[in-house]
Amino acid sequence: MAKADGDPVVAVRDPEPGALDGGERRQLDLVRRFGTIGALLMMVGSLGASATPIFNPVPGVPVLGMFSRMPSVALAIAWSGIFMIVLAWLWLGRLVRPGRIRLLSRVQMDRTLVMWVAPLLLVLPMFSKDVYSYLAQSEIAARGMDPYTVGPGPALGNDNPLARGVPNIWRETPAPYGPLFLAVGRVISAIVGNHVVTGVYLHRLLALVGVAMIVWALPRLAPRFGVQPVFALWLGAANPLVIFHLVAGAHNDGLAIGLMLVGFELALRKMPVVAPGMSPPPRQPGEIPWVIVGATVITLGAAVKIPAALALGFLGVLIARRWGGRFSDLLKAAAVLTPVFLVVLAASSLGTGLGFGWASTLDVAKTVKSWLSPTTALGYLGGGIGLVLGLGNHTESMIGVTRLIGQAVSVPICAKLLWDALKGRIKPMNGLGAGVGAVLILGPTVQPWYFLWALLPLATAMIGARFRIVATVTSAAIALVIPPTGGTFDGRAFVVPQAVVAALIVVALCLFVARRRLAPLWRGKTEPTV
């Protein structure tokens, strides 16, 4: 595969890979079934091991209700499914590795993704309870109150079915989401009222719209930056983090990321794909209108979650490089994109009637003190050292200082990435992935699904073997961080290790039974490469 330089668009000029042979199709069939069984186990386990709402319809249903009375068993079943999906995804990666003579087709990848996702469409929320916050904050907006100044508890009352599902830590806080998302949520609230389960499914449908946009955009962006489309789909859309957190968890990050990627692709719609080392042709008629359309869609993504706005900076760099790469070209690109961003964001804020209150709630996430956040972990470390040295407990102050430093450091990192992209040292999509990753990782709190903000852009442009290994291992590890219940096990912490051990035994038995059919998947050298 030709290695891409920093130019905005680079074609994949290597010989087209062939279709899988008979043995590889049998391997694919086995991988699909293994992952589908895992998804079905997650679906069954979710009946007793999901982030269930206060008003849970399952316990009263014959047969299905028994899982809610056996949470440890349900958790073990769900973990079994989680392990099986992660293993299936890793095995599938062997059939899409860049450089192979034969690769999965786009149709084969799409069918695999559908098989793994379909069983999880009707499960109750898993891995997180954020969707209950979406419902409560949307109901606040539907009642004509300002979700950016009042939390679910004070606005709806703690006995309200929607407020009761919100975790205690978020019950008093205002909404941290953009006006477009809350406006759509307001429509959902008008439809479902206080019916929590129906609201959950409609929010999952909204998340699936975002996943569909990701599936549409990844294979179109990838060839522009020298990456095989099917590999981008495997690393991006078929990633367990997408399946677990965007589908089963119904997170609105999927909608924001989907709009960001679709907007980037639309902005490049009229820009020709050029081969490495060749100068791009003169500006084509119709380029600017498509750039404006793409910038509009990206801004709509920012009106869901603000990190999507960073994509406009790297889109501007890409356009400036196409126009000559001079600083004056960068100013011209900014003159096109900045008004679009301001007008669309203002229209989203004022047109929805929610105003600009979202700007004052962007730091609401700092309420959570997550050990996954490096800045928060450093704050805890500093506070602990202070206690050991007898200086008193200054943990909160230390966390505040380290978080401030982290946010300050992310600014020059993004500026350096933008400059490198302008000078052609890195691809703009790589800069976008690294930049938004730096902003989120150095932010006050980090959640497992935040990794997707960096991974999905990088999946379209990064082709190095080291990146593939790091991204694969990191994705598989992060996919196993949060229990499917989306909550802690205070007072019964023994439940998780017991469930995990039971799940490992189940998966080991499955592997033993199917060991002969699975043998080709774990042999050392079965992948023909060019």
UniProtKB/TrEMBL annotation:
NCBIfam families in the cross-refs: MptB
Sequence segments annotated as region (Disordered): 1-21
InterPro entries: MptA/B-like (IPR049829)
Listed GO CC annotations: membrane
Alphabetically ordered keywords of this record: Glycosyltransferase, Membrane, Transferase, Transmembrane, Transmembrane helix
GO terms assigned for molecular function: glycosyltransferase activity
Name assigned to this protein: Alpha-1,6-mannosyltransferase
Family listed: Belongs to the MptA/B family.
Subcellular location: Membrane
TM helices/strands, residue ranges: 34-52, 72-92, 113-128, 201-218, 230-251, 288-318, 330-351, 371-389, 401-419, 431-453, 465-482, 494-514
Protein topology in the membrane: Multi-pass membrane protein
